Amino acid sequence: MRGRTLSAGVALAVFAGMTVVLAAQPVAASPTTATTMARPIAATVAALAAPDISVTNVQAHLTQFNSIATNNGGNRRAGSAGYTASLAYVKSRLQSAGYTVSEQYCSSCRYPSNNLIAEWRGGPTDQVVMFGAHLDGVSAGPGINDNATGSATLLENALVLAAQNPTMTKKVRFAWWTDEEQGLNGSRFYVNSLNSTQRGYIKGYYNFDMVGSINGGYFINRVTSTTAAPLKAYWDSLGLQPEENVEGQGRSDDYYFQQAGIPTSGYAAGASARKTSAQAAKWGGTANAAYDPCYHRSCDTTANVSATVLNRAADGVAYALWQLAVSGGTPACTGGQVIGNGGFESGSTPWTASSGVITNSSSQPARTGSYKAWLGGNGSSSTESLSQSVTVPAGCASYTLSFWLHIDTAETTGSTAYDRLTVQVGSTTLATYSNLNAAAGYTQRSFNVAGFAGQTVTLKFTGTEDSSLQTSFVLDDVALQAS
After folding, report:
1. Angle, in degrees to the nearest 10, between helices 55-70 and 81-97
2. Burial, 329: exposed, middle or buried (Cβ in 10 Å; 0-12, 13-18, 19+)?
3. CDD domains attached here (predicted)?
4. Which among 4, 91, 203, 419 has the fewest CB atoms less than 10 Å away?
């Protein structure tokens, strides 16, 4: 990633003609606890119908880039022998896999040298999804995290796409840029070489710059945009809670695409900025230390890469590519309200509930209608449950579980959670509420459940009370809306 910050880009154009999976923004579950459990990567990839990218293969490419630097003066700076050898390595692998590969000479670059462009067969030529990474590094070292990680991630994704050879709904174009470290010169030259019609063909550009930082985080360029949706949906399915790539704004090759009105996004794991305590608590790693302690230094070798972060980025690229450009990657959405009898007005079916939980008792009024689900309120040791098996449709743009909750308690100690309500989807605990959350009236609680798309799971509410002093957890108008 380039070290100097450019001015902020112009507003993004509407991302027309592109099918994406959009994960709804999560809403904080409660002031008490809200635990999201990451699903295993292999299971997630299978559920999302995208190939699992071998991190071992990606690391093998990194080893090649490191050796190239070692054998060529210790770096892969644009225009150097190390850069030329890096381009030759990527080009030969792509040509062997069947790509149409071209080199573009950047005459205006500080170190004149070539961009590498590769297209896969199939897909309409006027509907292009583009994935890019800069291939050059700084002169101080081999440039493995910055940015052999992005280059290797795209190379392995390209090779897997070729090996599987699926039916394409979009044209996929990969790019490896030169002279990024000197001012984003290679990508700027490419964008400037396109006429307005050619620019209009590119429906989205995705950039990958430093995706294996050893103390890294999970950052997405323009994380709330429609363009970012498939990248975010994958990381959401792992419970990673990605954040906006603030540090990287205007500092990598997506910049000139954005300036040209082409919708952009991408992954990053962080450069020289420091990880906050909140980020360390969420993602692990060391607080108040740089995401990449070897940023633009000679120690940026293969030892300076997190295999876990790299693996999640590589698999996320595959998921996005399949969702955006592969036939069958995005099933038709058969959304709407998934929960049956969410207002409890039609008896107990299809709910399974402890005796007396679904009730029209006037002691705790319903939010709407006459019936609601009332867990707890006994003032004695008890456990009550309410559950429903639901099939979450695949291929929808958003998935939001919501319900209205009123908590009433007789507990008087203000700092101890004596009685609890746990909310689960499958084996994942979405939130836990307690007597500490008691408040007048109903409050709506909402959760993003995109990670369960295509699965049949059980939604379950469990209320537990201790031996004295009641706490009532009253639920109404439960919904799981897919659209």
Report:
1. 150
2. buried
3. M28_SGAP_like
4. 4
Neighbour-count burial for 96-120, b at 16+ CB within 10 Å, e otherwise: ebebebeebebeebebebbbbbbbb
Q: Quick check: 6 pLDDT over 70?
A: no
pLDDT in tens, 221-278: 999 888 999 999 999 999 999 999 999 999 999 999 999 999 999 999 999 999 999 9
- Domains with residue ranges and CATH for the chain: 50-325 (3.40.630.10), 336-482 (2.60.120.260)
Q: How many CA atoms lie within 13 A of 358 on its CB side?
A: 19
C-alpha closest to that of 471 among 378, 383, 363: 378
CA angle 72, 73, 77 (to 5 degrees): 80
**Which residues, in sequence order, are CB contacts of 439 under 8 Å at separation 6+?**
406, 407
Q: What are the residue numbers of the active site?
A: 180
In total, the chain counts a number of residues equal to 483
Both tokens assigned to 283: 């993602």
How far, in Å, CA of 179 to CA of 187, rounded? 8
Q: What angle do CA 158, 307, 268 make, to 5 degrees?
A: 65
> Which of these, 265, 247, 84, 58, lies nearest to 144 by C-alpha position?
58
Phi, psi of 436 (to 5 degrees): -70, -15
The residue type found at 93 is R
202: β partners? 128
Could you tell me if 287 and 270 are in contact, meaning their C-beta atoms sit under 8 angstroms apart?
no
- For residue 372, count other CB atoms closer than 10 A to its CB: 26
Positive or negative, the CA dihedral 10, 14, 17, 18 is: positive
CA distance 175 to 187: 9
pTM: 0.64
DSSP per residue over 166-206, as a string? PPBSSEEEEEEESSGGGTSHHHHHHHHHS-HHHHHHEEEEE
- The neighbour count for residue 165, using CB atoms within 10 Å, is 12
| DSSP-assigned beta bridge partners for residue 176 | 116, 133
